[in-house]
Please model this.
Amino acid sequence: MRAILVLLPLALVACTSPRAACERDALHDLRVMDALIAETEQTLARGYALQREPVTRPRLQVCYGAPLGDNRVGMTLCNRSETTYRERPVAVDLGAERRKLTSLQAKRQDLARSAARRLAACRKTYPEG
Model:
């Protein structure tokens, strides 16, 4: 069962056409930059940043596998740690955030030109869709 879960994403990637894979790779950096710009704009709109931090708590669970005799599998209660995440507000220098946004937007223009060239190369190399 575990092998199927590991191989399934690989099989789905294998189904992707070479042109689609090339275009996805060509746009990767631009998508990352767009996400960073959106995050910075949200921080400026809120006036503070959100920092993601892990929170670990004990969780009481039903655990299987405790032998009961006659080779039967039993159940018992056990404590396990569960990690979740929360977002904590953090103060930021809004001036620095504005400068960062300006820098990201300028870099995005360079990345957009580069992505356009790479997309054109993908379409030239793999003409069929």
About this structure: The first strand starts at residue 49 and ends at 67.
